Amino acid sequence: MFTAIFASVEAGFIYAIMALGVYLSFRILDFPDLTVDGSFVTGAAVAAVLIINGTNPFIASFVALLAGFVAGCITGLLHTKGKINPLLSGILMMIALYSINLRIMGKSNVPLLQEESVITILTDWWQKIGIDEMIENALISMKLVDFVPKTWAIVVLMALLVIIIKILIDQFLKTEIGLALRATGDNKRMITSFSANTDVLTIFGLGLSNALVAFSGALVAQYGGFSDVGMGIGMIIIGLASVIIGEALFGANSIARATLAVIGGAIVYRIVVTLALRVQFLETGDVKLITAFIVIAALILPQFIASQNEKRRKKLKSQRRGEHVATAQTDYKSI
Amino acid sequence: MLQLKQITKVFNEGTVDEKVALHSIDLTLAPGDFVTIIGSNGAGKSTLMNIISGRLFPDTGSVLINGKDVTEMCEHQRARYIGRVFQDPLVGTAPNMTIEENLALAYGRTRKRTLQFGVTKKRREFFKETLETLQLGLEHRLNAKVGLLSGGERQALSLLMATFTNPDLLLLDEHTAALDPARAELITELTKNIVEKAKLTTLMVTHNMEQALKLGNRLIMMDGGQIIFEASGKEKEKLTVEKLLQEFQRIRGSQFTSDRVVLV
Ligand SMILES: Nc1ncnc2c1ncn2[C@@H]1O[C@H](COP(=O)(O)OP(=O)(O)OP(=O)(O)O)[C@@H](O)[C@H]1O
Ligand SMILES: [Mg+2]
């Protein structure tokens, strides 16, 4: 049980990078970008093929990030220069990427289990410093012996990586270019009248978003030990689920808060899915269905709770008014 | 400062809906000119403003700003020379961003945007000082989202954002029309002060004849895509609403019609 949750937290951090990308397109640019399903796999495919051909996994992951950037930029070009509607631009790119990803990999599945990867390198390095033993000893002395994960390397290092990416995004969105990017999503006419080229900003923003998505895909491939042409199906919904769950649970008052919420949402999503799959009658194939349910719940529950609160507030108010009227009447009688 | 030469604009040319919105318009603004434009519905006032700002392109004719031909320049490039306030208070500001972020966006109008922080300590001080001139207390709400402001406050902020970087040309298209009379009065007053203080070259469309007479040193009346009447300096000061209406009737032989015109 704990092992399963521990693994979902690990995965949660890696998928959080993808969710941050989705946050950039959906929330910052206000652009429902479906490229994600394709660019996630592009990242995985590029990294996998490079690694198999002997490239350093870190460099391979970085190239994957660049590939995602290019994919996002093309979606942006389709929309801004080709005047194609945002949803359609994304879908077209997603479809095109499916074939491109197959071309990159040469087959539909590239196994990576025998290869050195970012994950294995980091784990080896981590175990050499011996932090695992320290934590393990601490846990044993705290009598928590029934839960000892294989290594803390991935959880800690991926958390660190995600936090660094989050801070970079937060800071970037405060720069002059970052502010203009946000304004592009908020009020295009306004920012155009203040001499910003919204086309360029949209293209760049989508590039950035898909760069993160592809980078996440590269890490997921190395974490899972394979790249598969179908691994991106429904990725956009998982990203959205993370954003929506995060915002519902942790709030989104400021950018810094929102990005933190998105990371939290990505982890919560993984945990919920893991727990759901432990239910007897659900199978691995039901994951997408579960995801759909989670998103629907995350969208409906906050509204429901808000309306319930509102009802309670109104009831309280009318009750109080009733009391006032009652006392006023008795006052009147006593005169 | 601004030169319009023989501007013509036809919408839906060659169809039954063909509409000549502007018919060879010539107009020259000297530096510091404050021109108010009045005219009936569909006279072509907004079209003229949109052609100057680059939102629309003329069929024939050219637009020069500071002697530079900007006819082919697109909207965002031209914005380096132009400050604008729109009729709808929602258009001029970014609602989900804070007051200081909005000011930072406006501050970037004249310069190349970089990876420097948009709001620095020094700039925040400057923004505060600028906001104080509005006397709406906005300087204490730098971190409030602009979407929370009232229409009047938003329009005041838009006006400030359009002007505090001293544009070569200021375009105001009925920027008080969506406000209630008290708020409109406030924005009119602010417009007067800001334009006078910075000596901005300004073009202002209004349906309020009083406002058109009160503000500026020149007045233009438009109808059917043409400038049909012009007055400036002493001549403009002597004008009254009645005289304007008479003038319109004399030239056009019909009543001045507008759904929003304010006579008194
Ligand atoms: N995009 C467009 N397509 C077709 N016709 C247009 C378009 N924009 C404006 N027109 C027409 O051109 C004419 C001038 O319009 P414009 O908006 O410039 O008038 P206006 O003087 O600003 O009027 P108002 O006082 O009502 O704001 C109108 O007859 C209008 O219907
Ligand atoms: Mg108009």
TrEMBL record, chain A:
Region feature Disordered, mapped onto this chain: 316-335
Transmembrane segment boundaries: 6-26, 58-78, 85-104, 151-169, 200-223, 229-251, 258-277, 289-307
One example GO MF annotation: transmembrane transporter activity
Keywords: Cell membrane, Membrane, Transmembrane, Transmembrane helix
Subcellular location field: Cell membrane
Alphabetized InterPro entries for the sequence: ABC_transp_permease
Keyword Transmembrane: yes
Superkingdom of origin organism: Bacteria
A cellular-component GO term for this protein: plasma membrane
Topology relative to the membrane: Multi-pass membrane protein
Name of this protein: Putative ABC transport system permease protein
Lineage, uppermost ranks: Bacteria, Bacillati, Bacillota, Bacilli, Bacillales
UniProtKB/TrEMBL annotation, chain B:
Membrane topology of this protein: Peripheral membrane protein
Lineage, highest ranks first: Bacteria, Bacillati, Bacillota, Bacilli, Bacillales
Domain (ABC transporter): residue spans on this chain: 2-249
Alphabetical UniProt keywords: ATP-binding, Cell membrane, Membrane, Nucleotide-binding, Transport
InterPro entries in alphabetical order: AAA+_ATPase, ABC_transporter-like_ATP-bd, ABC_transporter-like_CS, ABC_transporter_ATP-bind, P-loop_NTPase
Keyword Nucleotide-binding applies: yes
GO CC aspect terms: plasma membrane
Residues making up the signal peptide according to the UniProt record: none
Any Pfam family hit: ABC_tran
Location in the cell: Cell membrane
An MF annotation (GO) of this entry: ATP binding
Gene3D superfamilies: P-loop containing nucleotide triphosphate hydrolases (3.40.50.300)
Protein name: Putative ABC transport system ATP-binding protein
Species this chain originates from: [Anoxybacillus] calidus
